[in-house]
Amino acid sequence: MKHLLAAVVLWTATARAAQAHATEQGFVLLLPTDIYIAAGGAVVVLTVVLLAVLPGRVAAAAFRPVTLWRTRGKGLAGQAGRVLAVPLLVWLVWQGWAGSRDPLGNPLTLAVWVVFWMALVSAQGVVGDLWARINPWGGAALLLARVRRRAPLHYPRAMGHWPGVIGFLGFAGFLLADPAPADPARLALVAGGYALAMLAGVVLLGRRWLVRGEALTLLMRAYARVAAVGRWDGRRALGLPGWRIARGRRPAPGHAVLLLLLLGSGSFDGLNETFLWLDLLAINPLEFPGRSAVIGPNLAGLALANAALLLVFSGALWLGARLAGMREGVAALFCRFAPTLLPIALAYHIAHYLPSLLLDGQYVWAGIAEALHLGHPHVTAGFMSSPGPVRAIWLVQAGAVVVGHVIALMLAHVIALRAGQSAWRATLGQAPLALFMVGYTIFGLWLLATPRGA
Questions:
Q1: N or C: which end of the chain has fewer CB within 10 A?
Q2: DSSP one-letter code for 104
Q3: Whole-angstrom distance between the N-terminal and C-terminal Cα of the chain?
Q4: What is the mean pLDDT of residues 54-77?
Q5: Among the residues of 31-135, which ranges form H helices?
């Protein structure tokens, strides 16, 4: 996606906006991206070497947070935010159905794809758990708690987190394969239907549904664990990004699978725009036939990308266990180390959507300003036509990807030490996983630099 979504580019973007994005990518192609990619891979390799030679306590100490002040739940502000989010969601869905047909002028489209998906998901993993304060389904649960004591049904233990996994795959499929995910009326049907289904889950199964079966809450809670700020032992704490992962519990199988799907789906989100993918589909990038022509291939590609990631990640863990002489099964290792990929998934999300957020975020501000009678802000893509800003954006994108991989490697090493392995066994057992992460670093930087045609 290079302008809100491909549908927006194809249907509603002006010629100037489309040229701005092409120009930005053109400047990226003129940068010495091969050098940046090699440097990024070298940084990750150096991290592997340092983890191998430094005492294990050094890496463990890096993820030790500093406690700040005692917290008292989410407070009145958090409760008010969640309750007010319920009518706001209803209003947004109504605006999508009855409001402007322009995706860049409709509040629902901007709220879902720019405010939530581009901005809030990124902020969730950087500054902390914002979603807990504005979760509309959390607000519905609060309102229901006022009129009854408990839900009529118990959440079946056997279901685990699998409803959330299915929900996220549905979301990813809609995002990447639907012919018009940014069309306001179409989005209103999907968002409204999903909201009703999640409300039914809360009504029937209570608050446990939110942390087991509601995909967006699971996604946001997962990314909150990457943030530098969080809660620990009833106190606000600050530490190296990912410290809650290093000190947290092993997730359940369904939850662990979801964490890998965040990375696999995000990677395919970038891959399906590239010349390479279009060439595999025998499509001329300069004559893109529209999203409706690639629904099947994109769904198949999404499934294959996630399946390949699950297979390669499991294979790396299996090989590492054999090298280190461990008897632990692959399933247990998979659940233990799956959270270490969260920093990589978040880094890709931030890097991939940064240019679109900088441009489409202006439409959000323009809508707010006009609603508050603050004037008519001018939306500009001029910064995408200058080498300086484009270089700065690229460096931020590449830096985010490299930092995400470095943190992931450190987390994997610390988690291996916490499992009782010696420093040597931890290093030996993590060697295949480290090789996987080095390769994924190069792949991620290539995705940012390669030409795009859709």
A1: C
A2: T
A3: 8
A4: 76
A5: 33-53, 56-62, 75-98, 107-109, 121-127, 131-134
| pLDDT given at position 75 | 57
Using DSSP's 3-state secondary structure scheme, residue 406 falls into helix
pLDDT band of residue 325 (cuts 50, 70, 90) is confident
Query: Would you put residue 305 in left (φ > 0), alpha (ψ -120 to 50) or beta?
Result: alpha
SS3 helix, strand, coil % of the chain, rounded to 5? 75, 5, 25
Per the structure, the count of domains in the chain is 1
Q: Is residue 139 part of a domain?
A: yes
CA gap 318, 51 in Å, rounded: 21
Q: Summarize the confidence of residues 423-433 as an average pLDDT.
A: 81
d(CA 86, CA 12): 30
Residue 292, burial from CB neighbour count under 10 angstroms (0-12, 13-18, 19+): exposed
CA dihedral for 166, 304, 260, 224, sign (positive or negative):
negative
Helix, strand, or coil here: 122?
helix
Largest CA distance in the chain: 68
The bridge status of strand 229-232 relative to strand 66-70 is: unpaired
Domain-located, residue 91: yes
Q: Is residue 1 part of a domain?
A: no
- Boundaries of domain holding 426: 6-449
pLDDT at 77: 60
- Half-sphere exposure of residue 120: CA atoms within 13 angstroms, side-chain side: 20
Asked if residue 78 has pLDDT above 60, the reply is: yes
- Reported residue count of the chain is 454
Tokens of 205: 């199964």
For the chain, what is the mean pLDDT? 86
Count the neighbouring beta carbons within 10 Å of the beta carbon of residue 250.
17
Contacts of 228 (CB under 8 A, 6+ apart): 126, 127, 128, 238, 239, 240, 241, 243
Q: Are strands 235-238 and 66-70 parallel, antiparallel or unpaired?
A: antiparallel
Q: What is the pLDDT of residue 23?
A: 53
Residue 169 domain-assigned (yes or no): yes
CB of 121 within 8 A of CB of 349? yes
The answer to whether 408 and 430 are in contact (CB under 8 A) is: no
Which letter, b or e, does each residue of 306-345 get, where b requires 16 or more Cβ atoms within 10 Å of its Cβ?
beebbeebbebbbbbbeebebeeeeeebbbbbbbbbbbbb
Structure tokens at 74: 């989410």
5-14, 36-45, 234-243, 303-312, range with the lowest pLDDT: 5-14
CA gap 2, 273 in Å, rounded: 9
Contacts of 148 (CB under 8 A, 6+ apart): none
